[in-house]
Amino acid sequence: MAYHSFSLVPMLGDNTLADRFTNMDRLFSRLTGEKPLSDIPAYNLVQKDKDCYELTVCVPGYAENELDISMLNNQLSISGKRDDEKGEASSEEDSVRWLHQGITKNAFSLSFNLEHRIKIQSADLDKGLLILRFIYDIPEQDKPQRIVLNPKNNGNKVIEHTS
After folding, report:
1. Domain, as residue range, for 126
2. Residue 55 belongs to a domain with what CATH number?
3. Minimal CA–CA distance to 117: which of 53, 55, 44?
4. Residue 27 lies in a domain
5. How many domains, the chain?
């Protein structure tokens, strides 16, 4: 299970370092037989405006009933499990010889620790992309407030004009 700490501050990354990490991860997974961390689905996080955000997770080949999205104690969990349909699929697989299989549908699990002020608005699955829309909901009492200074009157009367 992969855990990601979610922050509204964008992370700065070095693509060269990320590529080196991916290559090292693949090498160690070949040696140990463990699943590489890079097999975790790719995702994007976009800030649409001041308070609205969108998380897009790449889940090609998954149907709605194969995905589980839940939130418990400020932790967003997204998991996908294959819905094994033996029957006619197994007879087709017996007659098929794969030359290359780059698109795999492995079970996965992602977890994000969210702040308590983040509220999920909607979740959609479209063309292999799981799109979660959410807002960063700050109550009025927690927002910065502008305090207006009262002008010094020094004995002068302030004249208000009303129309």
Report:
1. 2-6+40-86+99-142
2. 2.60.40.790
3. 53
4. no
5. 1
What are the residue ranges in the chain where pLDDT is below 50? 7-15, 85-88
- Is the residue at 127 inside a domain? yes
Direct distance between the N- and C-terminal alpha carbons of the chain, in angstroms, rounded to an integer: 65
Decide if 115 is inside a domain: yes
Helix (H, G, I), strand (E, B) or coil at 32: helix
By DSSP bridging, strand 52-58 and strand 129-136 are antiparallel
27-69 pLDDT, tens digit each: 767 777 766 655 678 889 899 988 899 999 999 889 999 999 9
Q: How far apart are alpha carbons 4 and 7 in whole angstroms?
A: 9
Q: Would 149 be classed as within a structural domain?
A: no
What SS3 class is residue 116? coil
Output the CA torsion sign for 96, 100, 103, 106: positive
pTM: 0.59
The per-residue pLDDT for 88 is 46
